[in-house]
Every structure is written in structure tokens, then in C-alpha cells.
TrEMBL record:
Polar residues compositional bias, start-end: 115-125
The protein's name: Cell division protein FtsB
Pfam families xref list: DivIC
The keyword Coiled coil appears for this protein: yes
Positions of the UniProt region annotated as Disordered: 102-125
Keyword Coiled coil listed: yes
Keywords: Coiled coil
InterPro entries membership: FtsL/DivIC
Amino acid sequence: MPTRLKRPPFWRHLALTAGMIAFLGYLGYSAVNGQFGTDSREDMVIDMATLEARSAALQAEIDSYRHRATLFDANRLDPDILDEGARAQLSMAHPDDLLVMVDPSSGEPKYGSLQELSGDQLTDN
């Protein structure tokens, strides 16, 4: 009884080889042009620099807010500075305060608190 060896078809080897070459081509393309490839590395570096600058700006803003919050600490709060800031915000003054009105264009004083102002002069300024 003769035995005959069955050979696998040659196209199976060619199909496997072609599939592997196509897969390696895909991996190579992704390594160069993909989202995390070498070509997009420059874009990621630019994005990182932009985000670091934004983070630094936000950190400076946070530090500013923290500093302003510590100024309201009861142990550190200076009543004179608080009173002066409140009167400046509200445009109010004590009768004992010396006021000097300054012309914004020239920087020269217009009136002092020792001079009496009429109602028209107050509304003009």
C-alpha cells in the first residue's frame, strides 16, 4: 500500500506572509504617522509647552487668591488698612481726612480739603 504525503497548498504560505507584511506595514505607518508617532511628537511638545504656561498662569492666579485670603485673617488684619480700603471703594471720607483731588490728565492737584467746593465743582469732578 503506497502512502502519499499531502502537501499543504502553497497559497496558504503566501497568504500568511502577505498578512504579516501588511501587519508590519501598519505598525510601521503607526510608528511614524500615528497619534503617538514620531511626526506628532513635535505637536505634543508644543501642546505641553502651552499647557505648562497655562498651568503657571493659573498657579500665579491661585497664589494671588491665597494671598488675598490670608489678608482677611483676623490675626493679621490691620483695621486702618481695612478702613482705608473700604472708604476708597465706597468713595467716602471722614471729616478729619485731608482730600486732594487730582486732575487725571495733568496729574496736578485741583482742590484740597482746606478749600470749600461748591456743588457744581463736586459734580464736575
